[in-house]
Amino acid sequence: MAGVMGGRTTVDIMSDDDSTNCPGSDDEGDIALGSDDNPGEQWERHVESHQPSNYNYAMTAPIRVYGDEDGERVLLDVLDPVPAMPTILTKKKHRAHIPERRDFPFNALVARKVSKKEIENEPKAQKAVKQEWDRLRSKNCWDEDEVYEWSEVANWAKSRGEEHHFGHLFCITVEKNSELPQDNPNRKYKGRVVFQGNQVKDQNWDVALFQDLGSNPATMDASRAADCYGCAPGHNVEVADAEQAYIQADLRGPPTWVCLPRDAWPEKWIKKGFRNPVCRLKKALYGHPDSGTFWEEHCENTLRA
User: Fold this and answer.
1) Contact 92, 44 (CB under 8 A)
2) Is 176 helix (H, G, I), strand (E, B) or coil?
3) Which of 59, 76, 134, 224 has its C-alpha lying 20 to 30 A from 239's C-alpha?
C-alpha cells in the first residue's frame, strides 16, 4: 500500500496478517512523518481525510515504519498496535437467529424453544408438558393437599414473625432435533418444570434472601484424576447420570410456597374456587438458588453411606 515519498519516512497501518485493506490507492495509504510527528496523530488526520467505506478494519493494527535507503523501500520498525475501532464507522448486518446456511459442519446440540401458542395447537407438545407435570407430582416435589391462598400464608408468617418464601413454577418446552424432517421419529418435544429463582418474595413482598451456600461443581482436575485412575493397570472407571438428580434432595431452609400455572392446577383446586393458591415445595427443584447445594450434600452423603 505505502510507497517512498521523496526519501522521507512513511508508515503503513495494517492488520497482523496484512489482509486488512485501507481506503485509497497506494499513495493514499501513506503517511509522511517528520522528525517530530506522532504516529497516532498522523493516523487520526489520515482517517479524517477519508470517508468511511465498506472495507474491513481490524480493532487494532500495528504500525510498520518504512524508510528509503539507496532508492529502496526498507522496513525500519514495527510499532505497537494502535486502536482502529474508534476511528472507523462500520455497519453490522442483522444476524438471523436461524440462518439459511449453517456455518458449522456439526449439530450445536441446541433445542428449539416452543411458544405457548404452538403448544396450544400441537398435541405432541401438550403431551410432553403433561408428562413433565405428572412426573414431578409422582416424586412428591410439592404437596397439593397443603394448599392455601397466598395472602393467608403471608398473614400467618407475619403474625408469627416467621420467614416464608413465595415463588412460581413454570414449564419450559423445547423441541429436540428440530432440524430433522417432520416425519423423523427423533424429533421430540420435551417439557421441563422449573422454579423461577429470580422472582422470589418473602411474606412482606420483599426480595427473598437465601442461605448463599454455593455449589461446588466438579473441576477439571477432579475429572482428570478420575481418568488417570482408570488408565492404571487393572483399574476401570464408569460415567453415569443421576436420574432426576436435584429432586432426589429435600428442600431445606425457610418454608417455600409455590404458585402453579392455571393450566396445571388440580381439578380439586378449581372446584374449591381458589384465586391465588400456593402449596408447599418439598424437593430441591431446578431453578431454586440453593438446589445445587442440597443435591451435592445429598449425593455426597449417599456415596459415603
Assistant:
1) no
2) strand
3) 134
Q: Give the residues across from 67 on adjacent strands.
A: 74
Q: pLDDT tens-digit profile of 99-113? A: 666 566 556 667 899
Per the domain annotation, does 102 fall within a domain?
no
Q: How far apart are CA 232 and CA 238, in angstroms?
A: 14
Residue type, 238: E
CA 18 to chain CA centroid, nearest Å? 34
The structural domain count of the chain equals 2
Task: Read off the amino acid at residue 63.
Answer: I
Which three three-digit cell numbers place residue 154? 403471608
pLDDT tops 70 at residue 51: no
Classify each residue of 30-52 as buried b or exposed e, where b means 16 or more C-beta atoms within 10 Å of its C-beta: bbebeeeeebeebbeebbeeeee
Q: What are phi and psi of 156, to 5 degrees?
A: -60, -45
* Domain around 246: 113-304
From the list 22, 25, 20, 18, the residue with the least C-alpha distance to 3 is 25
For residue 72, give the 3-state DSSP assignment.
Answer: strand
Are 15 and 159 members of one domain? no
Give start and end residues of each alpha helix (H) in 38-122: 39-48, 116-121
